[in-house]
C-alpha cells in the first residue's frame, strides 16, 4: 500500500548532535516532464522536472544525499516503470526498466519542480539522456526512499566529492552548520567543472579545496588530501562520495584512525567499467 502524501510531513527529519539516523519515506512513483535544461559547469547539466507536486519534506537540510531512482526511456522511447506494491517497487529486477540513482539537488513544492544535476558523459543511458534532454521529454521517478539524516553537533565536517557527488555536496553546503568548520574537497578534471556553490551560513568557517586530477590519479590525490586533514581529529564528521574504487582506500584510512560509523559515510556513486552500480553493495554498513 502506498501511504498518502500527507503522512510525509510527519516524518522526523531533524538531526541529532551525533550519529546518522535513517528515516524511511513512503515510496512514490511518478512521471515528470522536463521543463528546463541548462549547463551549470563544464561537466554538469541541470535538468528541471515538473509534474505531480513534490513532497514538502524532500529538502530536509540535514538529509543532503536524498536521491531518487530515475527511469529512462528505452531505444523505442518507451518508459518502463515498476508498480509500487506494499510500498516496494514490484519485480524491479525482472522489468525492462532502465534506472539509475540521482541526487535531489532541489525541489520546489509550490512550483511542483524537482531539479537534478547530471554529469555529462556518453558512456551510459543516463548520461546520454541528460546530454540530449529537451523540454517536453518524460522521465520516471521513484522515491526518494530512505533519508540519511546526518548529525549537526560536530566541530568539523570534511566533505569529499567528485563530479557525481557535487549535487549532494551542494546540498551539504546549504545545511545550517553555523558554528562548525567545514572543509570540502572537490576532485574534478578541472576547476571549470565546479558550479557555483551555496555560500556559508553566518558563523561557519569554510574552505573549499579543488583538486584537479584525471580519474586514474584521484586515489593518490585524495589519500594525500585526507592525510593533510588529520583523520585522527577527534570531532570530525566525514562524508565521502564518488567513484567507488577511488574512495575505497579512504574507508580503511578512517577506520584505522578510529573514526567509527557514526562519524563517517563513504558511498561509491559509480564504478569505472560497471553499469548501474548498486551503491548499497559498496556501503560501509
Ligand atoms: C546515491 C547516488 C546519487 C547519485 N547522484 C548523482 C547525481 O546527482 N548526478 C550524477 O551525475 N550522478 C549521480 N550518481 C551517479 C550515477 O548514478 C552514475 O554515474 C550512473 O552510473 C550513471 O548512469 P549511466 O547510465 O550514465 O551509466 P551506466 O550505464 O551506469 O554505466 C556505463 C558506463 O559509464 C561509466 N560511468 C558511469 N557514470 C560515469 C560518470 N559520471 N563519468 C564517467 N563514466 C561514468 C561506468 O563506469 C560504465 O562503464 C549518483 C549515484 C548514487 C548511488
From TrEMBL:
Signal sequence residues: none
Transmembrane segments: none
Species: Schumannella luteola
Pfam family, one: SIP
Domain FAD-binding FR-type: 27-151
UniProt-listed InterPro entries: FAD-bd_FR_type, FNR_nucleotide-bd, Riboflavin_synthase-like_b-brl, SIP_FAD-bd, SIP_fam, SIP_rossman_dom
Gene3D superfamilies per record: Nucleotide-binding domain of ferredoxin-NADP reductase (FNR) module, Translation factors
Record-given protein name: NADPH-dependent ferric siderophore reductase
GO molecular function: oxidoreductase activity
Amino acid at each position: 500500500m502506498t501511504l498518502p502524501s500527507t503522512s510525509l510531513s510527519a516524518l522526523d527529519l531533524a538531526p541529532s548532535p551525533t550519529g546518522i539516523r535513517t528515516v524511511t519515506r513512503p515510496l512514490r512513483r511518478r512521471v515528470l516532464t522536463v521543463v528546463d535544461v541548462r549547463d551549470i559547469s563544464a561537466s554538469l547539466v541541470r535538468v528541471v522536472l515538473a509534474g505531480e507536486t513534490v513532497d514538502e519534506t524532500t529538502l530536509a537540510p540535514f538529509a543532503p544525499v536524498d536521491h531518487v531512482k530515475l527511469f529512462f526511456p528505452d531505444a523505442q522511447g518507451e518508459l518502463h516503470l515498476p508498480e509500487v506494491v506494499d510500498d516496494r517497487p514490484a519485480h524491479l529486477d525482472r522489468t525492462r526498466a532502465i534506472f539509475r540513482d540521482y541526487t535531489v539537488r532541489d525541489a520546489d513544492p509550490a512550483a511542483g519542480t524537482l531539479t537534478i544535476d547530471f554529469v555529462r558523459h556518453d558512456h551510459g543511458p543516463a548520461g546520454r539522456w541528460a546530454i540530449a534532454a529537451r523540454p517536453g521529454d518524460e522521465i520516471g521517478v521513484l522515491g526518494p526512499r530512505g533519508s540519511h539524516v546526518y548529525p549537526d553537533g560536530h566541530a568539523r565536517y570534511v566533505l569529499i566529492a567528485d563530479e557525481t557527488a557535487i549535487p549532494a555536496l551542494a546540498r551539504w553546503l546549504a545545511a545550517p552548520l553555523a558554528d562548525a568548520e567545514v572543509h570540502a574537497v572537490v576532485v574534478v578534471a578541472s576547476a571549470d567543472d565546479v558550479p557555483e556553490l551555496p555560500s556559508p551560513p553566518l558563523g561557519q568557517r569554510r574552505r573549499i579545496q579543488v583538486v584537479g586530477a584525471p580519474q586514474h590519479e584521484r586515489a593518490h590525490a585524495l589519500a594525500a588530501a585526507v592525510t593533510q586533514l588529520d583523520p585522527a581529529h577527534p570531532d570530525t564528521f566525514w562524508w565521502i562520495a564518488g567513484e567507488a574504487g577511488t574512495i575505497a582506500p579512504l574507508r580503511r584510512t578512517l577506520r584505522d584512525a578510529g573514526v567509527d560509523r557514526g562519524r563517517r559515510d563513504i558511498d561509491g556513486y559509480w564504478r569505472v567499467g560497471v553499469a548501474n552500480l548498486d551503491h548499497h553493495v559498496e556501503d560501509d554498513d
